[in-house]
Amino acid sequence: MTQRPDAPAPRLRIVQAVLRLAMGDATAIAAFGGTTAAFVQSLIPLLALPLVVGLATILSGQVVRGVTDLLAALCALLVPAWVSHVFARAQGREAAWLRFVVAFNWCQFGLSLVGLVMLLLLGAMGPPSHAAGLVLVIGCLAVMAYGLWLPWFVARHGLGVSGPKAALLVAVIYLCTLSVLVTRNLLSMENG
């Protein structure tokens, strides 16, 4: 398959699409691939940090914990795909699901980067102060609100469902993901 000379490279196209979605451009969803390969590619950046941390844990001699952390991260990353697939099938929107979940994953990666930038900015602010604490609270609330709005927006327009249905989907995805992470932490505490 040849690329048009004026078309952006695939990675640049993804970055542009994420930025457009982040600014509320629903037409950007069409820029994401609706293939299994695109889905796997959307998971790679999300897996990078858990993979590095898990391997470092394994190499430090904590093999069981490292493997458990990796498996929990993999499960947590696959929960949105599983939950949204069940939802899309129930809503008769299965044809739109793969493109949606690819866009969802890339937006989750983008949200991770926003959170990282926020932490770096807060670290650059210097010693804690009342003003820094206020900025931290406001910043965290803003990132949390945006972290709810963006997946809702992607679900609403990517699957073509109503706002309340998109909100329900995002809530179920987050609750199921949270349950995987809490279960992993409880098992970790139980095993010392």
Compact description:
With 192 residues, the chain is an all-alpha fold. The chain is built from six helices and no strands.
- Name the helicity range: over 70%
Mean pLDDT: 88
User: How large a portion of the residues is in β-strands, by DSSP E?
Assistant: under 5%
**Which regions have little confidence, pLDDT < 50, spanning 5+ residues?**
none
Spatial gap, N to C terminus:
53 Å
Care to describe what's here?
This protein has one domain. Helices cover 80% and strands 0% of the residues. It has six helices and no strands. The protein has helices spanning 10-22, 36-59, 63-90, 94-124, 130-158, 163-190. Helix 3 crosses helix 4 and helix 5 (130-158) packs across helix 6 (163-190).
Q: Topology, pairings included?
A:
Blueprint: H1 10-22, H2 36-59, H3 63-90, H4 94-124, H5 130-158, H6 163-190
Helix pairs in contact: 1-4, 2-3, 2-4, 3-4, 3-6, 4-5, 5-6
Any key phrases for this structure?
single chain; 192 residues; mainly alpha; 6 helices
